[in-house]
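User: Second chain of the day. Same drill as before.
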Amino acid sequence: MLEIRNLNAGYGDMTVLKSISLSVTEGEVLSIAGNNGAGKSTLLKAISGIIRYSGSILFLDTELNGLKPHSIVEKGIVHVPEGRKIFPEMSVSENLKMGAFLNPRDYRRHLELAFSLFPRLAERRNQLGGTMSGGEQQILAIARGLMGNPKLLMLDEPSLGLSPLYTELVFKSIGEIKRSGVTVLLVEQNVCESLMASDRGYVMETGSIVLSGRGSELLENPLVKKAYLGI
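Assistant: Same format as last time:
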């Protein structure tokens, strides 16, 4: 589905990503694990067209390099950024409608999926986003992403700063999203939870990929245990 080859990217004169190559297979949950500063969020920004890069990003055999972010969304890639970025002065329902702005197809079906995954959003559909708790805002951000009719949903640090209850809810929803037919690319510092939720994973350090494999295999890797799990 997604094929990245020899990707180099950064900000100004600072190079963050160094010759990254990876692939995402349709129908899977793929995790990108690593510490702060590894380049995980930069990778998602490159895929979304937010930053410029050299190399190749192919999505369903179409080259994305040079496309504007809105064109990439229209092709089926939806990015849920770190920090939620909801519209605080809009209601839950209005935030969800904004998520479907570029891809309004099957709006009702996606709304039903969002509300089935997160019943609290249905209960609070008229509440302003900015008055919700951090966990509620995070599930709203994920639901808004689903409203864009994604083929590939990219989640950047979805459990960051959440309570254990909402962390569990977020990771449970990732499995449900996969079962609905959406491929998921997950970026997380919570290495244990992300690899447990993933079919495959890559581990990044300082802008490079250092390990890859099935999620269960990476959890048993001695380097992952030592560096990320404290074992």
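The CA atoms of residues 109 and 147 lie 9 Å apart.

User: Great, on to the next one.
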